Every structure is written in C-alpha cells, then in structure tokens.
Amino acid sequence: MKPSYPWPATLALSYLSTLLPLADFTRALNPIIQKIYTADPAPLVHGDRMYIFTGHDEDNSTTYDMHDWHAFSSADMANWRHHGAVMTLDTFTWADANAWAGQVVERNGLFYYYVPVRNAATQGMAIGVAVSEGSVTGPYVDAIGGPLVENGQIDPTVFVDDDGQAYMYWGNPDLWYVALSDDMMSYSGNITQVELTAESFGPRYDNPDRATAFEEAPWLYKRDDLYYMVYAGICCPEDVRYSTGPTATGPWTYRGVIMPYEGGRFTNHPGIVDFMGRSYFVYHNGALPGGGGFTRSVAVESFVYNADGSIPAIAMTAEGPAQVESLDPYVRQQAETIASSEGIETEECSACGDGRLNIWSINNGDYIKVKGMAFGDEPGPTSFTASVATDLDGGRIELRLDSETGPVVGTCTVPHTGGWQVWTAVSCPVSGATGTRDLVFRFTGEGSLDLFNFDWWQFAR
Ligand code: FUB
C-alpha cells in the first residue's frame, strides 16, 4: 500500500512548525501509521516510549480476516517506529483465524498479550494469552497452549489494580470479567457476566436485541480513585462511550459519548493512556486512502480531563497530537521511524538478527519525513551516516529541510553493496541544518527498479 501524504492541512501546519516553537505547533499526523492498515489499538507506556499494539487489516480486505498483530512506538507522539508483526496466528497452534483486538500488559518484567482468536477445534471465539520475557516487542509465545477463557466473545482488556489484583474484561455482545491469578495466565474465581443496564452502560435506541449502548472493545483503567470502562457503543457504525465505577468490578455508571461516529468505517476501538504528562485517546478510523470498514487505521488525539474527572468529547483530527519532544539526530535512529512518507515499505531486516525492520521498495522520488529534529545551534551537523544495502546500482539520499522540496543540506551517494541485505555505512557532508526542523530523506536514482534498502541513520557534529 502506498497512500499519498501529507494532506493539504498538514502541509500548512508543517510550514508553521519551521517558524514557531516545537511545543506549540509541530503536530503529528493522523492516522499515525500509513504503510499498512491497522486496527484495534492498545497503547502501553514502557520506559520512555509509548507503544501501540494493533491488529492488521489486509490490503483490499472485505472481512475481518486478520492474521497478525503489529507494534509501533514513539518517544515524541509524532515520529512512529514500526516494530513489525510481533505476533501471528501461528503463535497459537490451537487457533485458525481472527487475529482480533488484543492488549499487552506488563507485570514483573514480563509482557502478557491477551487476544481473541478462533479456536480451530470449536470454531468459537476464545481468548488466548502469550508472554514475552524481556522485550515489549516480543517474541511472544503462547503461555498456556490453549484458551484462557472461551465463551464465543472477544476483545480482552486487562488491568492490574493497585493491590496487585489483575482483572480481565471482554465481550461482544455481553460484558464479562474474571479476576486473574498472579501468574496472569490462569484464574481461580468465577467468570462473571456484568449486568448491562441503561444506567450503567447507556440506553440503546438502534437495536431492540441489545440491552444497552455497550457493543464491544472494553478498555479498563484507573485514574485517581475512579475506574473507567471505555467501550465501543451502538453498532454499526460505532461510537465510543464510557462508564465509571468505584471499583474495578463496578458498579458502573454511564457517563456518555466520548467520540461520536464519524464516517469511513463500521467499528471503533478505544485505548486511553497518559504519557509524558498528557492524556491520549487512541482509536481507529478509515481515513487512509483506500480505507474503510475492513481497511482501518489507528489515530491518536490528546485530551484534558475535566476537573471532575469526566472525559470531554473528542473529535477525530488529521493533525493528531502535538509533538512533545524533539528528535535527537545525533543518536542512531532506525529508518522506519516515520512521521509521514511516500512510496517506501518496511520489511524485516533479515541480516540484522534482532527482528528489527528496514526500509525497502525505495524508488526515485520516494521520501520519509521525520518531524522536529533538534540540530541545535550553528554550525549544526557536519556529517550524516546511513546504513544502506542494494543489489543494484544504488542511488542518493537527499537531506531536505521542512519538506520534500525544501532546501538540500546534504546528499549521500549509495553504491552497489553486493546484496539487498549486505549493509554498508555511507557518509556525506552536511551544512545549513540548525535549530529544530522537520527533515525529509528524499531518495533519487536512475531506472524504474528499487534503488536500495535503508536501515538506520545518524548525524554528527
Ligand atoms: O478487528 C476485529 C474486531 O473489530 C475487533 O475485535 C472489534 O473490536 C472490532 O474493532
């Protein structure tokens, strides 16, 4: 998929960002992921980054025939690094379809990934759990070799309360919960069905078969002393609503609509998290070119809680949240750290050995834009180094300020390296890059075939 970016409104904001302070005017871009269709986002703050785990809608999809889950992360909310497919249906040997909406939670240094999948034996939907021992981006392995729970319902959300008790909620069309054991992969108490009433989950007006506005996609968290249950409501199309309660098991009180329906897809799927002192609402829509109900895309908005703890109405935007921190060009950055791009694709860097990705499918005129790069005072960087590989003749990486037609501050030549995974570091001089600016890597070369692959880059003073 090679959708064209950026949109006109974003061009204007991008221009402003070169003139005005980063914190005020440099914005991200929604949808935040533009190289693949993503759905069902689940944010997790780990270390100094926000990770978003997503489902993956196939190009041209006409159903929810989903096969893998991906991870993306950002330190600044504007530039997002793709970590690739961190888990696939193959992880669960007992499952045969429907890699649907999951959530990763961290406990005692382990990461647990709860997902709904179809049980091959029963052909019903079940919840599986996989675990990763050291890295938030996996590898994730099936924790128990079978369903954690199975009642034909979907969309697990897991929350660890202050006293250490973990709860898993899930459901469509009902809402269920169970208290998990400390090992996070079993439970001892009863599975409980939440009583859905108009008072607890809002009145239903579109479907007499449903008791309340609750539809699916629950997201449980706690802020101050209040527990929040956010969920997709009404169907279809869905909006996003929420309820609150005094404990992780309720009783729940309906609090209203957060994100009304906007066009382009049937479903929505919320996640809420705080990161670097701000609150973020993560969801999906159909806003990418070619997007729709089965080709969805993850987007993010920042918001501020009302003084009473209620959540304000949040609208979808094309601009996304403000960039919260500039990007350091003097440390090595993965080339798949992207604010927007044209053309290029990501793939696993098979020679790198650590599961990371590289950029491929680079053609003449393609580009990657990275936002808010802190070059610093005069004279700024004097050289640029990139790790590249190509089995053909190579090409050039133009370093352009602000946009793909902005001033060139350096040009690196990429030679034939001997193979698409035979990596070489190439360097070139840089001058004229100072302050905090957006930077575009614009790729040029002759011929109509792919030019080269691109793994990482770094500036030096
Ligand atoms: O992506 C498949 C399903 O669509 C999810 O499990 C639901 O939340 C809805 O977004």
From TrEMBL:
Sorted alphabetically, which InterPro entries does this protein's record hold? Answer: CBM6 (IPR005084), Cellulose-bd_IV (IPR006584), Galactose-bd-like_sf (IPR008979), Glyco_hydro_43 (IPR006710), Glyco_hydro_beta-prop_sf (IPR023296), Glycosyl_Hydrlase_43_Enz (IPR052176)
Q: According to the lineage, what is the superkingdom?
A: Eukaryota
The stretch of residues making up the signal peptide is 1-28
Key words, A-Z? Carbohydrate metabolism, Glycosidase, Hydrolase, Signal
Q: Name one Pfam family in it.
A: Glyco_hydro_43
Stretches that traverse the bilayer: none
Report domain CBM6 positions: 331-460
Picking any one GO molecular function of the record gives: hydrolase activity
The family assignment reads: Belongs to the glycosyl hydrolase 43 family.
Question: Which PANTHER family does the UniProt record give?
Answer: ENDO-1,4-BETA-XYLANASE, PUTATIVE (AFU_ORTHOLOGUE AFUA_2G04480)-RELATED
Name of the protein this chain belongs to = Glycosyl hydrolase
Source organism:
Aspergillus keveii
